[in-house]
Each structure stands twice: as structure tokens, then as C-alpha cells.
Queue: 2 jobs
Job 1
Amino acid sequence: MKSGTGDDPFADDSEDTAADNNARSSDGASEALQTPTETASEERRRPDTQISELPYKYRRDSVKEARTQQPMFLQDSTEDLIEETLDEMEAEFDESVYKTDVVEAMLVAGAEGASPAAVLRRWGYGMKNR
């Protein structure tokens, strides 16, 4: 019979268990070894925390990052409104604004009862001009 076809996948558990028991018996030594690792991992988390405190615009690498694509069928008047809002936001912030950001900001603003400019400001637009 070929190796592996009838083998018991759990047959090697006794060897693994012995290795685990040996590791558990030296808890003091393993804890001493883990302490620097835990400290290093905590230090690695700090930059992530600092990054997450940045506005959305500055913590992403591309406009598509952390977004899912959703197909939308829009009327011509809605597309015109998006273009007008895009032009207004670029004039207000005196910088290029992604159309994707404007569309999402319009959706969020409508749900929150805010303006698209307020949402974009919260995401980091206009910060370079302050």
C-alpha cells in the first residue's frame, strides 16, 4: 500500500504531545523568552495606532483601499450633480479631490445630515491649507 493512503492522520500526535509537554515543563524559560517578544509586538502596535489616528485620506495607499466596489445605476441629473459637487469640493479645498471620495462623501453626508465638504474635511481634505 502507498504511504499516506491508509495512514492514520492522528498517529503522530503522541510525538507532538511529548514535544508540547517538554515545552510546558520549562514555563519559566519560555516566559522569559516571550517577554521581549511581547514588548516588541507592543512597540509594533504603536505605529499602527498612530496611523489609525490619521484622517482616512492620509492612512490609505490608494483611493480604492478599504473600499468595496458597488455598481450604481445613476440618472443623468445625478451624474451632473456629482460632477458639480466634485468641482465645488476642489475649489473649496484648493486641491484635487477623488471623484470616488466625493460620491461616498455625498452618500455619508446624506445619511448623517451633514455636507459633503464636512465629511471630506473629516477624511483629511483641506488639511494642507490650514
Note: The helical segments are 13-25, 27-52, 56-59, 76-93, 99-112, 116-122.
Job 2
Amino acid sequence: MKKELKPYVALCDAITKLFYPNVEVVMHDLEAKKLVHIVNAFSKRRVGDAMISELKDLDGIKENWVGPYDKTSSDGKRLKAVSIIVRDMEEKPIGMICINYNTEPIETLFESLKGFLHVNDSAPKPSVLFSQSWREHTEETIEKYLSSKNIALSGLSSDDKKELVIFLESEGIFAIRNVVGYICSVLNVSKATIYNWLKVVRG
């Protein structure tokens, strides 16, 4: 290995340490056209192997990196790769570091999450069960009714309150234990009044 490439060994090792086990980092000596360092070699290549692709006109290379690009490993793994050109003090290309990331574990996880989070395939959640608290849920439902009618709570007539109670019944609010007393305090009506209104829809 050229001495100018030796400082990059620690960099290769650190990248692999961070993204292990899904990354392979390979360093080539461009002059010798050989692989001089490899970490987490899932491509089965070894130090001393010849470069897979031969680069021509090395001095004509202007880019400092190539990629990211897709490739396939020798055992069929789908990889996302980037190649970095290492230059000496005179800007001459002397090495190339290839970072090969195995994307299959992420793709598998993504497909699982996409299926799990597919909202259109999910049944509507029972809002009473999933609300932070029954009181908060009840207040949100009352606010929903008031917003639809563009009216304030203080401006509700007796008929409006009756309509609101019927609306709350349709939203399942009265399935909550002890909610009747809370509704009475909010609307300033008696329990008897609430139950009489509920009889209208319950029969």
C-alpha cells in the first residue's frame, strides 16, 4: 500500500464501524490497480485482488467522487454505492475508496412499515377509546358541533341543546361512564332533561 493511502485506512474502518453490518468499504491503489484494504467484505473480495473495473486516463479524472449509484454484489445483494477519488499533494489520483451499502434490510423494513401504516386499509379507530381522556374527547366533540353551527356554547337555545345532545349520542359520547353529569354541568340542564332528549333517538 502506498504510504499516502495509509491515513485513509482509519477512515474506512470508522465508516464500517458506524454502519455495520450493512456497509462494505474498499480501498484501491490506482497505480497498482489492486485492492489494498477492505472492511466487512460481504463481496468476498480480498486484499491483493485486482480492480474489477480498469480505469483509464487516471490523470483525466476531474471528479472527486462518483455516485451514489446502484449495483449488485456477487451474491445478488442490492447495493447503493459511492466511489471517492483519493489524490496526492499534486492532485494526482492515487487511490479510490468505494463505499457499498446493502439496502435490502432497509427496503424490507420500509415495505413492512408502508404496509403497517397504510391508512386506507385501516379500520376507523374508536375515538372514545383513543382519546387522551373522556373529558377532553367530550369537549372536542362539543366543539365540533358548535363549529358546524357557527355558534358559541353560551348562545345555545333549548332546542340547540337538545340537538347537541342528540349529536353527542350519535358520536357515542353517552357510552362513556358518568358523562351525563358532566354534560349537565356544561349545558346547565338537569339529568332528567338529558334523558328525555335521549329517549327521542333511543325510542
Note: Residues 31 and 149 are 79 Å apart (CA to CA).
